Fold these 2 entries.
Entry 1:
Amino acid sequence: MSLVPISEFGKHAGVDTPVIDSLIHMADSIFKKDFRKEGRNLSSLGMSGLDIDQTRKLLINGKR
């Protein structure tokens, strides 16, 4: 699993993820890529725009 979705789920839930964010930033620098744009994120997973309850239901049940 990629770190970007974990970071984005944290932000979505109001949880800071400073260590994960630092690792993503280091990987961006090492590989000269923007993993937040190019990697898996809430948008690419079809989860942008969901509120926290909808997200929780989707993660638990696998359905919207």
Entry 2:
Amino acid sequence: MQPIEITHLVNGEPQFVMMPAVGTQPGPDVIVGNLPSVEQFGSVGTQVGLAVGTDSCNNGQVDLDWFALPNNDHPVIPQNLYRMSGGTDNIERFEQVGQSWLKHAFAAASANTCGFGCNGVGGSHLGSGCSDLYSASLNASQSGLGSRAWVNPFTGAFPGSPSPADHTGHVHTGTSHRVTVAMSDLDRTQNPGATYFAEGQYVTPHEYAWCQANPGQCNMYNNVSYRQFSVSGSTNFTFSPVGSTVRSQPAIFAWTGATINKIEPDPGNDGI
């Protein structure tokens, strides 16, 4: 995306001002622009394995690092599922009913889902204004998932070797590493009136490093979005979106039965 040159007259003389590209922030700024789908990819016993599709957008003026493993300078993508239920209005409780391991980003497209105006950069970087769709099936691929325990959730840092996505020594089932949820938590007959929310997030070391070097350009606190989905089925489940993706807010903001006060830490402070 290119800057915009504005010409205006001052005392009869032309003056030129270079403005940043429309819809962008200084530095890299990845957000979850859309959560297009939730899908089931297997089951074991009383549990199912789900995955959430995530479409990321770079709202920043700087191309975001997207280097594949074994390089550790790329986003990791957690997927979560929540249920709101209980009480006369079904808003008394907000529970996390499932979570996945982390999808390790490996290559970026150069689409324009968010309408920011893509600069055409892709591959090892998510270009300024560009978007990149990871479908639910891609985020369900177990070979591309790594344990959350490897990654600092605030800085995005993790060791590149041995590979956090090394699955040597264990066998995968239909639920392994995916968003694992008990069937009883999804069955509508057992959860009348409940509502469900999928959440996706991009945790990236590039934004943290940029924030440290440029404290006034911290874009690392807006990387999570959520979307409501309706659920049908008893052992094989189907999910349909309800409304649009709510960008740059965690799913807990959907909890209408609670008062939520958001506190954003100062640059580099994880609050611990």
